[in-house]
Amino acid sequence: MTEEKKFLNVGLVMPIAPIDGCTTEHWIDVKRIITESLADITDYDTNPKIVSEGDSTGLIHKRIVEGLYTSEIVICDVSCKNPNVMFELGMRLAFDRPTVIIKDDKTDYSFDTGVIEHLNYPRDLRYNEIVEFKERLAEKVKSTYEESIKDSNYSPFLKSFGTFRVSSLKEDEVTPNEFIIRTLQDIQVEINELKTSNLRKGNQNYDSNPFKKRVSSLTSSRMFDAMLEVIDNLILEDTFVNLSTNELIPIVKNELNKMGFMAKDHEIRAALKNILDEYGNKILKDA
Question: How many domains would you assign to the chain?
C-alpha cells in the first residue's frame, strides 16, 4: 500500500503585475515554474498559493497576514524589488518562520536580507537554467521545512541579530455560528468599501468637473470634500439606510461641526442632492 503523502502548505509572495519590464504573463510563467518544481518533491503534496488567495473570506489584508503566518513555508520572489513583496517578506521574517527567497539574475541583493541565501533564476527563463533552478528550489524547500520541524530553536533570520520575542497572531476558538457571523460581517465590510470606492472614483476629477461650479456656489470645495468624507463614513456605518434627507441633515451637520465647518441646513441639503444626483447613488428616501 502506498503511504499517503503529507500535505505541505506553501505560501507564495511574488509580483503579479507588470514591473521593471516584466509583464503579467511573465509572473504567471514564474508561478508555473515554482508549482512544477514543488510537484517534484516526492515526500509532500503541495498546492502553492499567493498568500492573498487564502481559503478564508474577508478583507484582502487580513488574508495576506493570515497567509504569511499560517503557511508552513513561504517562497518569496524578490525580483524587481516590488514594494509590496518586500513588505510582506519583512512580515514573514518577523514571524521567524521557514522562508525561501528567490530572485532573477537582473535583481541586486537587498542589504537587509542579504544574510539569507537566495536562489537565482534567469529573468529570460531560459530552459536549461530553469530546469536546474527547479531542482534546486525543490530541494531547498524540502530541506528548509524539514530543518524547521526538527530544530526547536530554528530561526531563519532573527537569530543573526540576537535574541528576540517572535511575533504571533492571536488565535480564537469560535463556534460555527460565530464563524458564519464574522464571515458575513467581513463580506459586508468589503461591500461597503466598494460603495465608498465608487463614490470616491466619481469625485477624482472634481477639480476639473463642471459639477464643482454648481456646488461651489453653495459651499466651499473644502467643505464639500468634508461632506464626502462624512458620507463615506455614514455609508460604511449603514446610517443611510431608511433615513430621509431631513433626518440626515442634522447628522451631517453635527459631523461637519466636529471637523470645524459651520454648515447651514440648505447648504447640506443642496450638497447631498448634488452628490447623489451626480454619482447615481439612490440611497436616500425623498424627504
Answer: 2
